[in-house]
Design a protein that fits this description.
Largest sheet: 4 strands, mixed
Mean pLDDT: 94
Number of strands: 5
Distance between the termini: 17 Å
Structural class: alpha+beta
Shape: globular
Length: 206
């Protein structure tokens, strides 16, 4: 397997899952420039990460890749116990993180994409930060009495970890969210997470 990954991007979730399932893999470190290069666009017209290549099969979109990896290695139990109920519960939280929470960070990362007048960039980002915190409040409540979003480790948890790292880095903050803070601390101690972060730090840009 080959994963095209950009540091601090949501593709870190896929890298963590690859470590959790223990499958041999190659990581190609991408940058804002290389994801728009002609060579990369020939294999991923979206010009984004992640992209997973598995033999002659190429797959984009984080939710699809995470689900694919979990389906390939059911013994890792990253989609619950294999029942439709457990799978749906994992996908519900993964979908929430991907479709709702992730998208709310876009005005923080790229405010001028939404309003080109730079004078309003700060206000747009600040409004988005408030919205992100409303989502974090829901996630913090979900983790009350749980170590994982669905009760056991799943593909939704690395995505949550990525989002919480963004929250810390973009001054959204985790103040007042004790359950989320504990979750980040636990993830930072996880062997697979530590291996993924080390790989990310060591990779040279493509």
């Amino acid at each position: 397997m080959k994963l095209y990954h950009m540091p601090s991007a949501c593709s870190l979730a896929d890298l963590i899952v690859l470590e959790w399932i223990g499958v041999p893999h190659e990581i190609v470190r991408m940058s804002l420039e290389s994801i728009k290069s002609p060579d990369y666009l020939t294999i991923n017209a979206n010009g984004t990460v992640p992209l997973l290549e598995h033999g002659d099969f190429s797959l984009t979109e984080n939710v699809a890749i995470l689900g694919y990896l979990a389906d390939l290695y059911p013994e890792a139990r990253l989609l619950g116990d294999g029942t439709p109920h457990d799978r749906a519960e994992v996908m519900r939280w993964l979908g929430f993180l991907n479709s709702d929470v992730h998208m709310t960070f876009k005005p923080i990362f790229m405010p001028t994409r939404f309003l080109q007048n730079q004078a309003f960039a700060g206000a747009i980002a600040d409004t988005a930060r408030i919205r992100v915190r409303t989502y974090l409040e829901r996630l913090d409540a979900r983790l009350d009495g749980r170590n994982w979003l669905t009760g056991e480790r799943s593909i939704a948890d690395p995505y949550l970890f990525v989002i919480l790292r963004w929250a810390i880095d973009t001054q959204v903050g985790l103040q007042g969210f004790e359950n989320l803070s504990r979750f980040v601390d636990r993830m930072n101690l996880d062997a697979g997470v530590r291996a993924a972060l080390a790989t990310e730090a060591e990779l040279k840009p493509s």
